[in-house]
Write a structure and sequence with these properties.
With about 1300 residues, the protein is of the alpha+beta class. It is built from 25 helices and 56 strands. About 30% of the residues lie in helices and about 20% in strands.
């Protein structure tokens, strides 16, 4: 007998009627009642979809899985157990399982106790990570805990040789050259492993009770000997589990490889205990039984080889295999979007003949380098909570979770999407088991749902002050908002890779997806929805269809050329043989083994690598994919192969699906019920899926009930039962609801999503078609939509320093240019025209619509160009004193004139800075031209999307909702300001707030805030701020507005539309000629990256929100005439009323990721000696400030070092008695023994052997030390399911700028 447990799809015919199959955290078959045990209330039913049982112990989990198998065997054979009470494995052919044991252990930090063994100087490198904070508007920076308990530092080191770049005399330093490396790159061993010291340190570690370690040493991906030495010592000492990073995943980049090794050491022993316990319940501990586990990459592996780093997406992977095998090229020739909507989240994926993998993904704060199916999880599901905030319908991301669950579960839970569907009549309680309520024996309670909606309706109708909305209208509104929220990641997933969303079929599975599938498909322009007959448990069915997979991978770092093809082929063959041997040992015949070869390829000088293959010439495939995903290829650029990979699959022998026999008579409906749709109730027939016949047609509206899901066939849609008993729905046009220009709170939420979607899709086009590293890979850009008055409507991504600045730029053009023509495009970057700093070039295009002579909207894109001339490469000189030294300037340059790109005139302007002595024109003209064309293309995409929206709703409606969405943001800020004013009045007796802070040169930034509690308004007056400075810390007015919007959004505390409305209640006074509104010719590069941080400090100080964070971006530039490197470095965040500051993180107006140590050392003649927290640099207090960092660089060649920093004189302030954070310090250690304090801003020549040691500031403390328990006050928060997948990673990367 065969068992696929996730649930076991093929087991339904075997399970007695009183037993229900549910989806637990282990995805194991269990049942409705057994003795005294009852099913928890979030069972995978038609109400909530694929929810999960609460986390339980291994013993309980194992009992459930064993009992599920025992019951099935007993039903089939009459005797399931041996005489000694074990499950009889002679009755089982194979068992296939998926498990969320690994995922839950990560989420809840309940894995194995383990330690990290790493190079000396890097003990905090995984804590710091990439230094970006996870949520840019949360002042209370919370990151998941690291996986290790403690760290052991090993004083050993390997670095790249860089024979043509390194100018140090290695002979005098006793460096040993290593030529035999995996990639062929020469390396130096500059310090050997002190084996006796390692043994001593590991003995102490083992004595402390730690039995699992991860060994992560720099550059071990290509030179693993030092890791092997440490691993051997650990094994000799008896450590039960040792993960060597080069074995777990041999890929370059220390931090993600370190996370992966830690995940393996943390999870694998945890999984082993579960497997040992599970197998212990079977005869001979399952010896001789074929037990396979689903991995994150969609392939099965044996129980013996199942490990932690490849188990994280074990559950969702089965569903992807399920719809891929049953839908693509069988039910449709279109590519397929998988839509798996469960109780707490929704998984979205894509299949077009080959599984789409990602090779680095973050789950629960842990970045794992391993092949994983690109499953994008968004925090929207049946349990997503419903809110009405400041006139806006909001769904999620908070979830009711398993307990208390939705209101209808009778456990005091909140209203959720499930409740909305129940209120609309789309869920039928009589078809659900009675497992709800406090005693888990009651039916779904519609009365509880309706009572909750009555209270919410009262609140909404009081706010709206117009004709009362009915409960049904409100519930329908929340469903529509939820649908639009789920459409956005689907659009992003397809358009990110150059695909048309509408040219896909939607494969719906999971318990809750069938209720929303028709509406989502219609919204996305899709014509077909496919629902498999096992949709509620498709993950289990997918495991029955999945292949057994073995993978092997090696790093390469080799140029792709004809001369190297034989080398690639030889290495691929070696990996093939390794994989084939493993599959042969598992009993597969050679003819059933399929090999797939991959090369991980990228253009030289870029970081954007594509996994290419199999089939055809690798270079042709690489160019084809690059063209498809990015819209162009780069001629005359070498291509590098970073990794070589083989994926071998032992083909599944699962039985083919059985066709249903044709039946002449169609099944009649069970009954008819009233279901609410747009426009009111409609009589809706109810069918049971297992009673429907082949080729039967069901016209919507209808409900098709399955044992684990509810399928809603909406009006205008038609369902057909396929020959295999599945459901294929053809989407009709439906009756579009007429929308008028008057405010509708439901439509307001939907338009908010649509406006944001326009900006997001513009960004996708810009990223795809740009060529520079800054825009394509660092994603340093913003795209935005503006009204005809230039007021911001939507902006994506939310880069803090861009938030208000682009609006100023567009409005400057409106005020000065007056007349706009269709086909014209404007370029601007000047500070007096709304610019931030000169490298940020803004491209503006007016949007015209038929019959209207003036622009109806504007679209704009702002991108950071790597160089636009000036006195230093990179156009960010630390010592500039005038704007002309910082590069080319454009106030209102006509970039495109009635469709003609003015290339000649543009080049003249970009080269103009070269006419100034000591300055240069742009040093990267080709990239400038290419990226500006990409910005034009992004704007054109925005124009098309705006016109599409107007075609659907009408110009008057779209412009009206532009105004409504701005008014909503204004409302949210007014509510916040009223609360701040009341608090200030209670605390101080007045509503005037005042604060001042100073730059390191002594210049004051002064703010006086006058609050009006009745109006919810404020006057922010910067009178008293110092005059324009001789230097570059002057900040354009637009920077001050951006900082102010950022602070307001942080103080609001929840998502609000970030647009012109945010500043409507705020009058901003900035005196002309002060350093926050300097003269036209003032230098401003430091204002963008330094003064902006001080403005935030002053605003938050005035409002008494929290202590100061590091207040600096720590801008470090080093390079020569031929290359340059720019990085910003993290520091400490400020503590607040209920939180400690976080160390080693970027704060406020920047969120830039740090370049990985191995990448930095591989590319540049730099050696990173140390990157760790600067202990005790955070301010003291009831809540202490976060620590800064120490970053020490050894230079191996002559070059120039530039530092542009702040908080080297004035400390970050504490608040409410908390101590200040320590000020920063820039120290240069000369090779001749001298130590030089560089001060906050300078540029100095560097010689080989010099060391730069950067100490970044800490954050201020909050509250007097000893004024209470120095323990974080953790308020109970609703669960928010962590999002993941390529769409989420892209957004995180955008916000890490």
């Amino acid at each position: 007998m065969c068992c696929s447990l996730h649930n076991a799809a093929e087991l339904y015919e075997l399970i007695p009627p009183e037993i229900w199959s549910i989806n637990s955290t282990l995805n194991i078959c269990t049942y409705k009642t057994w003795q005294s045990e009852t099913v928890p209330a979030n069972f995978n039913s038609p109400s909530t979809g694929a929810a999960h049982l609460p986390m339980c112990t291994h013993d309980v989990q194992v009992e459930r899985s064993e009992e599920g198998i025992r019951r099935i065997l007993q039903e089939e054979t009459g005797k399931a157990l041996t005489e000694d009470g074990k499950v009889d494995t002679s009755l089982i052919e194979w068992i296939r399982m998926g498990t969320t044991v690994a995922t839950n252990a990560l989420l809840e930090r309940k894995g194995e106790r383990m330690a990290l063994v790493i190079n000396k100087g890097f003990k905090d490198v995984l804590f710091i990570g990439n230094q970006a904070r996870p949520s840019i508007f949360k002042l209370d920076i919370r990151t998941p805990d690291v996986l290790y308990d403690t760290v052991v530092e090993v004083d050993c080191r390997i670095v790249p040789a860089l024979p043509n770049q390194c100018h140090l005399d290695q002979s005098t330093r006793n460096w040993t050259l290593l030529n035999e490396t995996t990639t062929g790159e020469p390396m130096y061993e500059i310090k050997t492993v002190d084996k006796e010291q390692v043994r001593t340190d590991l003995e102490k570690l083992k004595a402390s009770g730690v039995d699992s370690i991860a060994v992560v040493l720099a550059h071990s991906y290509t030179a693993p000997d030092q890791e092997i030495q440490v691993g051997q010592i650990a094994q000799e000492l008896g450590f039960k589990h040792v993960s060597l990073s080069h074995q777990v995943m041999p890929m370059v980049r220390l931090v993600p490889r370190g996370f992966t090794a830690c995940a393996d050491a943390y999870l694998t022993p945890h999984i082993r205990r579960y497997l040992d316990s599970f197998s212990g319940g079977f005869k001979d501990a399952l010896k001789g039984c074929n037990v396979l586990f689903m991995q994150s990459d969609g392939g099965l592996t044996t129980m013996e080889t199942f490990n932690g780093s490849r188990a994280v997406l074990s559950g969702p992977a089965g569903g992807v295999v399920g719809y891929a095998v049953t839908t693509y090229a069988k039910e449709t020739d279109l590519p397929v979007i998988g839509f798996d909507m469960g109780g707490t989240s929704t998984d979205v994926s894509r299949y077009a003949g080959r599984y789409e993998h990602v090779y680095e993904s973050t789950t629960a704060g842990v970045t794992i380098q391993a092949p994983q199916l690109d499953v994008n999880t968004v925090a929207a599901g049946g349990g997503s909570m419903l809110f009405f905030r400041s006139g806006l319908f909001v769904v999620g991301p908070e979830s009711a979770g398993a307990h208390p669950g939705p209101a209808c579960y009778q456990k005091g839970g909140p209203l959720t999407v499930t409740d909305a569907n129940l209120a609309l009549g789309r869920l039928l309680p009589e078809y659900f088991p009675k497992i709800f309520g406090p005693n888990e024996n009651a039916p779904l309670d519609k009365n509880a749902t309706m009572n909750g909606f009555e209270k919410l309706a009262s609140e909404i109708n009081v706010f709206l002050k117009k004709d009362a909305m009915s409960i049904e209208e409100i519930a329908m509104g929340f469903v529509r908002v939820a649908n639009e929220a789920m459409c956005r990641p689907i659009r992003a997933l397809t358009q990110a890779k150059g695909y048309d969303t509408s040219r896909h079929a939607l494969a719906c599975f999971g318990g809750a997806g069938g209720q929303h599938a028709c509406a989502i498909a219609r919204s996305l322009g899709m014509s077909t929805v496919f629902v498999h007959r096992y949709a509620g448990i498709l993950s289990a069915y997918g495991m029955a269809l999945a292949d057994v997979v073995e993978e092997a991978q090696e790093p390469s770092a080799t140029l792709y050329s004809k001369e190297n093809l034989s080398q690639f082929q030889a290495r691929l063959f070696k990996l093939q043989e390794r994989c084939k041997e493993k599959l042969l040992q598992q009993g597969f015949q050679e003819e059933n083994i399929v090999m797939e070869d991959y090369l991980h390829m990228r253009y030289e000088g870029t970081d954007c690598a594509l996994m290419v293959g199999p089939g055809g010439d690798y270079m042709d495939k690489f160019l084809e994919r690059y063209q498809c995903e990015f819209g162009f290829t780069i001629s005359d650029r070498a291509v590098i192969v970073d990794d070589i990979r083989v994926r071998a699959a032992g083909r599944s022998t699962a039985a083919a699906e059985v066709e249903l026999l044709p039946v002449e008579i169609s099944t009649v409906a069970e009954k008819a019920v009233n279901v609410y749709f747009e426009g009111g109730y409609q009589s809706t027939k109810v069918y049971l899926l297992d009673k429907l016949h082949r080729d039967q047609t069901i016209q919507g509206p209808a409900i098709i009930m399955d044992k684990l899901s509810t399928i809603l066939v909406e009006p205008g849609c038609k369902a057909i039962i396929t020959k295999y008993g599945d459901v294929r729905i053809t989407i009709g046009s439906g009756n579009r609801l007429r929308i008028g220009p008057e405010l509708d709170s439901i439509q307001l939420s939907i338009f908010g999503h649509r406006f944001m979607s326009i900006a997001e899709q513009m960004g996708r086009i810009l990223q795809r078609t740009s060529i520079s590293t800054n825009i394509k890979e660092r994603l340093d850009f913003s795209c935005a939509l503006f009204g005809p008055d230039g007021g911001l409507v939507s902006n994506a991504p939310h880069i803090p320093v861009h938030l208000g600045a682009m609006q100023e730029t567009v409005q400057y053009q409106i005020n000065t240019r007056k007349i706009f023509r269709e086909g014209d495009v404007i370029l601007s970057n000047h500070p007096s025209a709304g610019g931030s700093h000169l490298p940020d070039l803004t491209v503006i295009t007016p949007v015209f619509y038929k019959g209207v002579n003036t622009p109806v909207f504007f679209v704009a894109s702002r991108g950071h160009h790597a160089d636009i001339g000036g006195i230093t490469p990179g156009s960010m000189p630390p010592h500039s004193t005038s704007l002309s030294q910082e590069g080319a300037t454009f106030k209102s340059f006509l970039l495109v004139e009635q469709g003609r790109f003015r290339e000649k005139e543009l080049i003249e302007e970009l080269m103009r800075p070269g006419q100034i002595e000591g300055s240069s024109g742009t040093r990267n003209l080709a990239d400038n031209l290419s990226d500006l064309r990409a910005q034009i293309a992004a704007n054109q995409k925005g124009i098309l999307l705006v016109r599409e929206l107007i075609e659907v709703y009408g110009l008057d409606v779209v412009q009206a909702y532009m105004g409504h969405i701005q008014s909503n943001a204004e409302l949210a800020v007014r509510d916040m300001l009223r609360q701040v004013a009341r608090t200030a009045l209670e605390r101080t007796g007045k509503t005037i707030l005042e604060a001042e802070d100073r730059l390191d040169d002594g210049s004051p930034i002064h703010l006086k805030v006058t609050l009006n509690a009745n109006e919810g308004s404020a006057i922010c007056d910067f009178t008293g701020t110092g005059p324009e400075v001789w230097g570059n810390c002057n900040a354009p007015r637009a920077i001050t507005l951006s900082a102010l919007i950022y602070c307001l959004r942080c103080m609001v505390g929840h998502d609000v539309p970030l647009n012109q409305g945010c500043l409507a209640p705020v009058k901003v006074i900035v005196p002309k000629g002060c350093l926050l509104d300097p003269s036209d010719g003032a230098a401003v590069v430091g204002g963008n990256v330094l003064t902006s941080q001080r403005v935030v400090d002053v605003v938050l100080k005035a409002f008494q929100v929290c202590a100061a964070s590091q207040g600096c971006m720590n801008n470090i530039t080093f390079g020569s005439e031929t290359w340059g490197m720019y990085e910003t470095v993290a520091g400490g965040s400020g503590a607040g009323p209920t939180w400690h500051g976080r160390g080693g993180v970027h704060t406020h107006m920047t969120n830039t990721r740090i370049t990985d140590i191995e990448i930095l050392e591989r590319r540049y003649p730099i050696l990173v000696n140390r990157f760790s927290l600067r202990e005790e640099s955070g301010g003291s207090g009831k809540y202490h400030g976060g620590d800064g960092v120490i970053r020490e660089l050894l230079f191996r060649a002559p070059l120039t070092l530039s530092v542009l920093t702040e908080r080297r004189v004035n400390e970050p302030y504490g608040m409410e008695g908390g101590g200040p954070g320590k000020r920063g310090f820039n120290l240069l250690l000369r090779n001749d023994g001298r130590s030089v304090n560089l001060g906050p801003k300078t540029a100095v020549p560097i010689y080989p052997g010099d060391i730069f040691r950067l100490h970044t500031p800490g954050g201020g403390g909050y509250g007097k030390p000893g004024s209470g328990d120095d323990i974080e006050q953790c308020q109970k928060q609703p669960k928010v399911f962590p999002e993941r997948g390529s769409v989420h990673e892209y957004r995180r990367a955008q916000e890490s700028v």
